[in-house]
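Q: What residues go here?
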């Protein structure tokens, strides 16, 4: 029987299928380890550096095993890349006709029931949204999957999509007249039959948390589970393996109750005034929580009299709406579902308003530009994950470019709750000594200094001149990013692109197209961004990426480590920051022909003892503190 290493070898079929393919020893070694793990139903943590080719290293053995394999990715974009680019190549190479299914969350599929309601009831839509409805009419006639990403002309964050997609709360299930044609149900049926199933981490953990009908039947029948971009698992799990309630859920209930009343005509009095009352309460809650982009400790927040008053008013408004919806529920299934949702939200908000029980979880509030969320999160996610990932009847593979700290996987193992498992590390095959240069500038102030960002940009400008733009500037906070934006725009030498000013894909397209462009980003641009060639020649990182000490979840976790006799900084903050830095560094060299400069601005790299750990996390490239050396490096590129 042919092995994975042979498929990926120099004489394997990929050399005739994949343009530019060359056999990589590290890729073959990883594929062999994955093959063995699947065969013996083991657990493998596999760190695979940029350029190793980890995707093919797990796909080839998954296909050859002929076992049902679930692959969970970090993003929907990577799901699509696997399904439409990588898997067709592997299927052709291994000549195994396995069924493949791509499954996304409900919000990614058009809901036919809600679509027809919008078309027939004509809610208050803008002219542009009315035009989008007309555009969707033509698309509906020919789509087979109902995936909204197929409609490229309507952004995925367009305001119209929540009106046209369903949630677990508002789905009518078997009572829906379009149930037999439902795109979500069709996708789930395909998933049940598939030998290779592709999901993302959010959907995987939503299923663990909700055990939603349909998808809850998938995991028990799987033989192998592969987590790609597995470094994201602890944070994603933390979001789902707890309790939450959001302003969006409250407003969505109001919107749906209003629409169902228009359709089912219960004619129960005071429904509309009560809906408006809840909408005002949701707006008041957002207002009283203050600035956007903040996480706040629940105990501190709930101690504020104004917040307590608004929260009590919201609970009262939900209770009042529930009483009216209970009476209206007899008019139809839609209003009945709204009553159930209202009762559930009321119960969750009441529970959230009470004093926390025990020390195993932390409650907090979070604000966004237009909304808010109240969350209860487990302090130790690993404990909960251990129970879910203990199934000895499955093979578990965790892979990413950044899972270890100086080759030690113990921190990651603790976060995901797995012990006594196989670990392996394959470094990047790129020649960083020749392809890259590490620059640590002289004379920057302490990162806590209010003038730090200004000094950092002053030191960065000569580097950007030498690189002719073509740079990512990665920041650890929005505040620093926007301050840097103002300084760079005042300088007026470069085309400045800023995270949030346009969709991520559009910003990257502009960056690749424009000469002398610099792109400023925070967390979402530190990973999962792939710009190859000379469009990106410089990555600048403003500070070592320690988590904000004001984050209530972080504070609770550090407190728990300390109470157990551990060292919170060494056991949690430092390893998390090292892994995050490695993700940012990974944006620079994406191909064997890439060349570039990595500029790390934080003076703690050389002034603090722990700085050595960050430097060891960098690929083996020359380090300089001399600006002229940087200029010479770029001169050699040009």
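A:
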């Amino acid at each position: 029987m042919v092995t994975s290493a042979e498929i990926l070898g120099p004489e394997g079929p990929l050399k005739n299928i994949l343009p530019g393919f060359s056999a990589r020893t590290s890729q073959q070694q990883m594929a062999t380890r994955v093959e063995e793990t699947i065969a013996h139903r083991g657990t493998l943590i596999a760190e695979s550096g940029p350029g190793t080719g980890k995707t093919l290293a797990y796909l080839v053995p998954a296909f050859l095993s002929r076992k049902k394999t679930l692959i969970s990715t970090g993003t929907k974009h990577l799901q699509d890349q696997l399904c439409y680019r990588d898997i067709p190549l592997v299927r052709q190479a291994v000549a195994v006709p396995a069924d493949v299914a791509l499954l996304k969350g409900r919000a990614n599929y058009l809901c036919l029931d809600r679509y027809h309601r919008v078309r027939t009831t004509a809610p208050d839509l803008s002219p542009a949204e009315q035009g989008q409805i007309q555009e969707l009419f033509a698309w509906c006639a020919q789509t087979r999957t109902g995936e909204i990403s197929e409609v490229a002309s309507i952004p995925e964050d367009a305001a119209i999509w929540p009106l046209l997609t369903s949630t677990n709360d508002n789905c009518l299930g078997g009572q829906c007249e379009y149930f037999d044609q439902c795109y979500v149900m069709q996708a789930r049926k395909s998933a049940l039959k598939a030998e290779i199933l592709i999901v993302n981490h959010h959907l995987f953990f939503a299923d663990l948390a909700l055990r939603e009908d349909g998808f809850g039947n998938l995991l028990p029948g799987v033989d192998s589970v592969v987590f790609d971009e597995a470094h994201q698992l602890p944070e994603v799990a933390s979001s789902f393996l707890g309790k939450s309630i959001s302003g969006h859920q409250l407003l969505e209930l109001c919107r749906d109750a209003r629409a169902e009343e228009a359709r089912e005509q219960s004619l129960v009095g005071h429904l509309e005034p009560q809906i408006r009352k809840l909408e005002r309460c949701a707006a008041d809650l957002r207002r009283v929580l203050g600035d956007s982009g903040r996480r706040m400790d629940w105990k501190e927040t709930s101690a504020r009299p104004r917040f307590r008053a608004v929260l009590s008013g919201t609970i009262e408004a939900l209770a009042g709406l529930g009483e009216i919806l209970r009476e209206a529920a007899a008019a139809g299934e839609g209003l009945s579902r709204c009553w159930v949702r209202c009762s559930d939200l009321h119960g969750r908000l009441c529970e959230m308003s009470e004093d926390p029980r025990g020390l195993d979880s932390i409650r907090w509030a979070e604000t966004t530009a237009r909304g808010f969320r109240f969350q209860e999160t487990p302090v130790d996610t690993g404990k909960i994950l251990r129970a879910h990932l203990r199934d000895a009847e499955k093979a578990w593979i965790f892979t990413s470019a950044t899972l270890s700290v100086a080759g030690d996987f113990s921190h990651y193992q603790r976060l995901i709750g797995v012990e006594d498992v196989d670990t392996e590390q394959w470094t990047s095959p790129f020649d960083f000594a020749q392809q890259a240069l590490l620059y640590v500038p002289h004379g920057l102030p302490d990162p806590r200094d209010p003038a730090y960002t200004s000094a950092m940009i002053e030191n960065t400008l000569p580097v950007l001149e030498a690189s002719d733009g073509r740079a990512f500037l990665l920041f650890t906070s929005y505040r620093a990013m926007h301050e840097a934006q103002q300084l760079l725009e005042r300088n007026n030498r470069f085309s400045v692109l800023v995270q949030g000013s346009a969709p991520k894909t559009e910003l990257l397209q502009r960056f690749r197209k424009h000469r002398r462009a610099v792109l400023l980003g925070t967390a979402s641009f530190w990973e999962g961004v792939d710009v190859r060639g000379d469009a990106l020649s410089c990555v600048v990182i403003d500070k070592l990426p320690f988590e904000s000490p004001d984050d209530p979840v972080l504070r609770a976790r550090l407190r728990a480590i300390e109470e157990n006799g551990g060292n919170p900084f060494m056991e949690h903050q430092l390893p998390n920051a090292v892994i995050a830095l490695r993700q940012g560094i990974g944006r620079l060299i994406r191909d064997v022909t890439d060349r570039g400069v990595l500029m790390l601005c934080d003076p703690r790299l050389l002034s603090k003892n722990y700085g050595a750990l960050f430097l060891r996390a960098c690929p083996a490239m020359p380090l300089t503190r001399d600006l002229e050396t940087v200029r010479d490096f770029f001169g050699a590129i040009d």
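A: Context that may help when evaluating the design: The mean pLDDT is 90. The chain is about 50% helix and 15% strand.
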